[in-house]
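Data deposition worksheet. Section B asks for the primary sequence of the deposited chain exactly as it was used as input, without tags or linkers unless they were present during the calculation. Section C holds the resulting structure in token form. Section D is free text for depositor observations; keep each observation to a single sentence. Incomplete worksheets are returned to the depositor.
Section A, Depositor: J.P.
Section B:
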Amino acid sequence: MARPSWPGEQVVAAAQAGDEASIAALVSASHPHVQRFAYALCASEDDAQDAAQEALIVLFRKVGTLRAAAALGSWMFQIVRNECIRRAKAAARRDGPAIGRPGEPTTTSVEDDVLRRLEAQRVAAAIAALPADQRCVLVMRDVQGLPGDVVARRMGLSAAAMKSRLHRARAAVRAELDGQDQ
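Section C:
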């Protein structure tokens, strides 16, 4: 089954201009992508659902502030990332350490859960730090799972140029993560 595509630039431009039907179409078409981002980045399913909903609300309210229609995916990824981080911090402040809670089954240790969340935050921060062209290619290819030819076409690149940007993006993320380990 083919993954749904991001809304076209005409829909984004019309939504930026305030066309209500285009805004509704934009939010509806962005939902599967935003939800996929949230499930990949948030610590829990509930947080992912809430983060996706918040991101779509931000899109609805602030689509007029988006500078370039082509940057929609990157912008939404950043909004979801920030919302997931905000929710994780709020949960940590609210819940405190989760050690020794009676009646709650534990499938993984607290340490494993914390390490997994920290790693997801590190990866998201490394992706967010990429230049926009590299981030777009990486997100479309590795997060959304789009085929290389589709990514190249959407970015207006040759297949070789898309592969080069993807390679540089992956290498930069790897270098950033390796640098944080030291």
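Section D:
The two ends are 42 Å apart (CA to CA).
Residues 67 and 93 are 35 Å apart (CA to CA).
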